[in-house]
Amino acid sequence: DAVSAVNQRAEAEGITFVKSQQMNLDDCLGHLADSHFDLIVSSYAIYYAQDAVALLKGLRSLLKDQGVVFACGPGRGTNKEMQNIVNRFVQSAIKPIDDFLGPNDIQDIAATFSQFKVSRLENQIVFDSADAVLSWWQNHNSFDHSVAAQVEEFVRAYFLDGNTFKLTKNVLGVRFDV
């Protein structure tokens, strides 16, 4: 529906340089082979590709002169506060989240481009109630039903003193320039 809505709006407004397409991420290089872009942005998506490094390297072929690819996704230490709580109660600790692209991956991709820049952003989300924290956690991949009651008890006790809970979302962004 969203793809159709973008195309309909562009047509209604006479915007000819906008075209929305639905496709599998791993097939985009083939589908877009005849296209050339000034800017390609992936926000929390490209790491779902079967081979994100190969895809990022391949995107170079779709860029115009002076084109840019920017990709961002989870950075090292994301959600560490919630992981620390859950790890109090689980048998095997949840592994910390690492960067969606490692340094060697970035160097490998950068060899295809003229330059690159790595940026990091620490973004804190503030929760003002136990219910808000628990709702977030129940919808996150770190949720573990086997310790849900213990985590809930801990989080509810934490808020009894009028505290807020801060969850850090670390973002790794990498810009690759032609």
Brief synopsis:
This protein is of the alpha+beta class and 178 residues long.
Task: Tell me about this structure.
It is a single chain. The protein has 178 residues and is α+β, with helices and mostly antiparallel strands. The chain has seven helices and four strands. It has helices at 2-12, 28-31, 52-59, 80-87, 103-110, 130-138, 148-159, and strands at 37-43, 63-74, 115-127, 165-177. It has a four-stranded mixed beta sheet. Helix 3 (52-59) packs parallel to helix 5 and helix 6 runs antiparallel to helix 7 (148-159). It is elongated. It starts with a helix and ends with a strand. The model has no long low-confidence stretch (mean pLDDT 95).
Regions with pLDDT < 50 over 5+ consecutive residues?
Answer: none
| Order of helical and strand elements | HHEHEHHEHHE
Largest sheet: 4 strands, mixed
- Calculate Rg over CA atoms: 21 Å
Q: In terms of topology, how is this protein built?
A:
Blueprint: H1 2-12, H2 28-31, E1 37-43, H3 52-59, E2 63-74, H4 80-87, H5 103-110, E3 115-127, H6 130-138, H7 148-159, E4 165-177
Parallel strand pairs: 1-2
Antiparallel strand pairs: 2-4, 3-4
Helix pairs in contact: 3-5, 6-7
Name its key features:
4 strands, alpha+beta, four-stranded mixed β-sheet
